[in-house]
Amino acid sequence: MRSVLSLAASALALTLVAAPALAQDAATIERAETVRDAAMERNIALDYVTQLTTRFGPRPAGSKSEQNAAAWAADYMRAQGFRNVRIEEFPLVGWERGEESASIVGARPQRLVVAALGHSPGTNGVIEAPVARFDSLEDLNAAPAGSLAGKIAYIDAGQMVRMQNGSGYGPLSRIRAAGPAAAAAKGAVAFIMRSAGSDEHRMPHTGTTRYVEGRVPVPAFALSAPDADQVSRLIGMDETVTLRLSSTAHTYETVSQNVIGEIVGRSRPEEVIVLGSHMDSWDLGTGAIDDGAGGAITLAAAKAIAESGRRPARTIRVVLYGSEEVAQPTDTGNGGGAYLRGVGAALEKHVIAGESDFGADRVYALGLPPGAQTSDFARAAAQVLYPIGVLPSPDPELHGGVDIGPLAGAGVPVFGLNQDGSRYFDLHHTADDTLDKIDPAQLNQNVAAWAGLVWLIADSDVDFRAMRPAEAAAH
Fold it and tell me: Per the database record, which ranges form the Peptidase M28 domain (predicted)?
């Protein structure tokens, strides 16, 4: 009876509040809490990510698997009641791994476990050369010109530091991106690195390299952590280590695509909230945490809001971006750039954007755009999210993520629902990125956090652009 009376009171309050309702209205907060609780108990997230990873497996950018998954996801959206579902294509240089191998040859022969780095060229046969080891990218850059002629450059910067916010990844991903060009500049015939991960498993982490003047200069590989240790120990024993490397990796012309669907706003449908994730994955696993889970979370949150019995005032647009994982000869922003170019003048009506691309473990903090940290909206969001373990972050969210980065760069405010990344880089870009690594309870908590927060924004007139401090607005 108490719940019935509560619902009746909520309905009465909603009729008395002039539209659009302010985010801090008691009725709006109460409905957000109701949406949150319903999403925690029942949502489509696990169904979506299960079907995606099982039906299509890995979804490399531009591959037939990514294209087929996109077509399926569009149909899935339509079946769940999303409107204006469409696929937005754009050209892409794709990459196939082919076959790869590595071994130590000579007096201490042994096989190594490696993964070619994304978009690096093949070896055109076999490369056999001595290894020159460096502790950092800076050390490699400081090597004399031509000093690595006929050698393989190897950077072992040590194990990634495990951090809840994933900040240990940046120093190693920087090596992966810039290392091949640095090696080539010193005359090296190939590049290898300790893979960018926080685990000690014999599963190397792949990831994209960087194009320089339209190409990746030399074949590049990631060594699994135990194999990196092995090579470094041998070199530390004053052994000359010679490696034999082989890769048939190659690029090809193709297309990728964004999949877009909407919960159309009730009274101000032209005002848009973007919920982003990416469809593509690396080829070693099935892309469950990176980033099938993100698509599952954002789709399920929007669906939970649609099922609440009242459409919000603003439109919620879910975008499953294509080709987030890979660099390109010309940086056009991949899926995020294609979306921005397609929006045109409607960009000014984009209220805010958020991205889910850090696995499926629990959300622990909310980052809001500059100026919103002490607002009435922030207090309302804290009230809705605190009961499920999400605390406000004092730091403003500025960038969002790779996919919504182009929107942020064009002036659209962004938010972040920050996930616990303590184990994310054990699995990231490896063969271990599979469905069984998703904890359904933590996945549901993500959906609940997204649904509650997005409802507050979507059924309000909160204006994050107007909250910006002058210096942030000028930036």
Answer: 258-451
Residue 146 CB neighbours (<10 A) = 9
- What is residue 132's predicted lDDT score, i.e. its pLDDT? 98
Residue 86: phi and psi, rounded to 5, are: -155, 160
Tens digit of each residue's pLDDT (9 = 90 or more) over 224-239: 999 999 999 999 999 8
| β partners of residue 154 | 133, 192
Give yes or no for a contact between 293 and 434, defined as CB atoms under 8 angstroms apart: no
DSSP β-ladder status, 350-355 and 314-321: unpaired
Residue 302 CA to residue 347 CA, distance in Å, equals: 21
- Output the pTM of the full model: 0.93
Confidence of residue 108 (pLDDT cuts 50, 70, 90): confident
Domains and CATH numbers, the chain: 2-93+253-474 (3.40.630.10), 98-248 (3.50.30.30)
Task: Evaluate whether 421 touches 163 at the Cβ level (below 8 Å).
Answer: yes
Q: For 286, which DSSP code? A: -
In the block, tokens 């995606």 appear at 52
Per-residue buried b or exposed e for 244-278, using 16+ beta carbons within 10 Å of the residue's own CB: bbbbebebeebebbbbbbbbebbebbebbbbbbbb
Q: In whole angstroms, what separates CA 91 from the centre of its chain?
A: 20
Tell the residue number behind the tokens 């960018």, with chain if given.
Answer: 196
Q: What is the mean pLDDT of residues 77-102?
A: 98
pLDDT on residue 95 = 98
pLDDT tens per residue, range 37-46: 999 999 999 9
DSSP lists the bridge partners of residue 104 as 110, 243
Phi first, then psi: what are they for 262, rounded to 5°? -135, 150
Give bridge partners of residue 414 from the DSSP assignment: 353
Residue 248 has which token pair? 């048939």
Q: How far is CA 352 from CA 123, 205, 280, 408, in A?
A: 45, 33, 23, 9
Dihedral angle sign, alpha carbons of residues 40, 43, 46, 52: negative
Integer Cα distance of 118 and 326 in angstroms: 7
Do residues 187 and 157 lie in contact, with contact meaning Cβ atoms separated by under 8 Å? no
